[in-house]
Amino acid sequence: MANQLASWSFLFHFLLLMCAQGNGSRVKIENNNIIRLPNTKEAHQDGHMHHMVHPSAKVFFTLKDLKIGSVIATSLPKLGSSKYPPLFTREKAESIPFSLKHLPYLLHLFSISPDSPQASAMEDALRQCESEPIRGETKFCATSLESMLDFVSDMIGQESRFQVLVTRHLADSSSSSSNSGLVKNYTIIEATKEMSPSKMVACHTTAYPYTIYLCHGQSGGNKVFKILLDGENGEKIEAVSVCHMDTSNWSPDHVSFMILGTHPGASEVCHFFPEEHLVWVPADP
User: Fold this and answer.
1) Could you give the number of structural domains in the chain?
2) Which residues contact 39 (CB under 8 A, 6 or more apart)?
3) Can you give the residue range of the structural domain that contains 89?
């Protein structure tokens, strides 16, 4: 198992290195921390996000932007299955401690220096997982596929069928730059589906030595869309977008309000889901 943990640690270092690289005059952003629902105690982190997101990058937008012909600048890189490998099995995940109090042990286990960016990313992930959710939200960090499915089932209903929605780069995507994290212009050419699910679970990847998902569930108050996007380099993407209709409990320092020029409760906040993020909703009848 030590060799396997070493390979995960190498991947973790590589991912953080890739996220830190810029590219000329084009804007490159890391979506993972930005699109999570903000805990009211995370104002200091959101302040940091102000410096991460270029104002021209519409990571967040409103319902009026979701119309045919609208152009939205965002980052939707094609990652493939190699960047975020599958979740551990429950047995393997439960054999590794997952809590902030075990951070020194975990840093030693994965051969990570306590003063490194990787250690900071691990600490941030664990703090996010252990922080209190906002009102009306249920939060859970899934370290295995089984634990994720259990959480989704508990949220949507033990007897209910559910489906997962993901952003897909379509087969006719031809641009090699679609693999990059650059912000590019995407034109909405079709809205293929609109849902107002009674319950929804969103799961976001976060930087950690192995794959984990920060999942949060809500009842009502969201609209989910599947949108066909045409990229400036010819790629086509079927993107999942979620609009949070009630933002009254969000931190006023959340970066979405800086981008939109608004404040908690004033308007809905919408965003696309990157390729590796998941949206779970009740299955179609």
Assistant:
1) 1
2) 128, 131, 132, 133, 134, 251
3) 2-282
